[in-house]
Amino acid sequence: MSPGALALLEAVREARATGRLLQGGRDWGVGLEEAYRIQEALFPGPLKGYKLGLVSPAKQQQMGIAEPILGRVHPEMLLESVHLARFLQPRAEPEVAVVLKADLSPGAGVGQAHAAMGGFFLAVDILDSVWEGYRFTLAEVVADNTSGGGFLLGLRRLAHLPRGSLRLYLNGEKVAEGPLEALGDPGARLAWLAERVGGLRAGQVVFLGSPAPAVPLRPGVLELWGEGVLLLARVT
Predict the structure, then answer these.
(1) Helix (H) or strand (E) run with residue 92 in it
(2) What are phi and psi of 55, to 5 degrees?
(3) Tens of pLDDT along 177-189?
(4) pLDDT higher than threshold 90 for residue 45
(5) Domain parsing of the chain, residue ranges
(6) Beta strand pairing status for 215-216 and 205-207?
(7) CATH topology of domain 3-235
(8) What strands, in cross-sheet order, belong to the sheet with 220-226?
């Protein structure tokens, strides 16, 4: 790794270890590919799957990229409830996740990706970041596992991507809402991801990104609604 990459790696590692937030926006001299190498070094396997971020064209344009970014999902990141003390500055995003029933090789087409899908689940991405106020450069957020903190996964399997909108409530108050069509074609997302990471495996879960901005978390009850399906979790 370059000296800048090593410096960024050590900064994120120390911040995660000590719980100290960092000021983002620094030019580390690190490109996207090297940022992914930092991510892999800091957040090694075993992997349960991946998360997608910056899925909207507007966010991609803002960050100067033409495709989503990704983070690594470990088994211990799948939660049944949220304990705020586990995180540095937790925020929540309403999402949908897809679970694979078959392997997906690099170079697979969109049709193959659709055939590999085993079902969809409502999900909440519990974001966390070492960068104060979530102000960061592209290299900084990717190195920090694309703000991956934890995930809630619904219990009901859906045969297709839900239609309409996702609506997230905290203690009965609607805090986020967005149209599911903003997530794009899940087959195209999976085919892109399989090519990007060298293939996907049966049983892995992919969080497809959020159609709504992230919101800060506080204690209470989270409810996520999508096409009449409910995900419910407690935040303490």
Answers:
(1) strand 91-100
(2) -80, -15
(3) 999 999 899 999 9
(4) no
(5) 3-235
(6) unpaired
(7) Fumarylacetoacetate hydrolase; domain 2 (3.90.850)
(8) 173-179, 165-170, 220-226, 229-235
